[in-house]
Amino acid sequence: AGNSGSGFMISGLANVARNGYDGFQIGGLWNSAGSVNGGQLGGLLNISRDISGLQLGGLGNIAGDVRGFQLGGLFNVAKNVSGVQFAGLINIAENNDCPIALINIIRNGEYGIAVTYNELGSATITFRAGGRVTYGIIGVGYNHKSKDKGFVTEGGFGAHINIVRWLRLNNEIKAGSIGKFSEKGTFYANYSLLPAFR
Prior knowledge:
Blueprint: E1 2-11, E2 14-27, E3 30-42, E4 45-57, E5 60-72, E6 75-77, E7 80-87, E8 90-93, E9 95-96, E10 99-100, E11 103-106, E12 110-117, E13 122-130, E14 134-143, E15 151-164, E16 167-178, E17 186-197
Parallel strand pairs: 1-2, 2-3, 3-4, 4-5, 5-6, 5-7, 6-8, 7-9, 7-10, 8-11
Antiparallel strand pairs: 12-13, 13-14, 14-15, 15-16, 16-17
């Protein structure tokens, strides 16, 4: 622990630098620092006021302003992100153009709800949320053609390609299941290229 540092910090449990750190922090459990120029690698959690570089946390990352990349197993939280947030479940930020997770809560981002029906007989309600470039998709619905329980769940990721101010192409990769999460369930994956008007 210290007020500032330069170089490497490696610990089986935790690393703490109160004000700032230039270099890399590797902690078996967590890392905490004021401003980080370099990276934080924590088995569970990384916390930083500002980071320029990489935050890699087994569970998640918490930071103020991020210039670089946040990779969290479950979640990422930041204020302003100039780079990419990638999480297994949720990203939270005030400003971020490139969040990649199933759920993205971006204060100045884009949100949408859609009702879709496909050739398998699934009607779903999906929630899309993200930034100017990428977004996440989660949905639930019902399949009327299924002999067993026709409950449908799906999730995926999308990316906007802006053509002109009022027209864009949405690229989406989705995967889902119909019925039970078992051998009897039906799993599917698809890619869609969708024109969208603003």
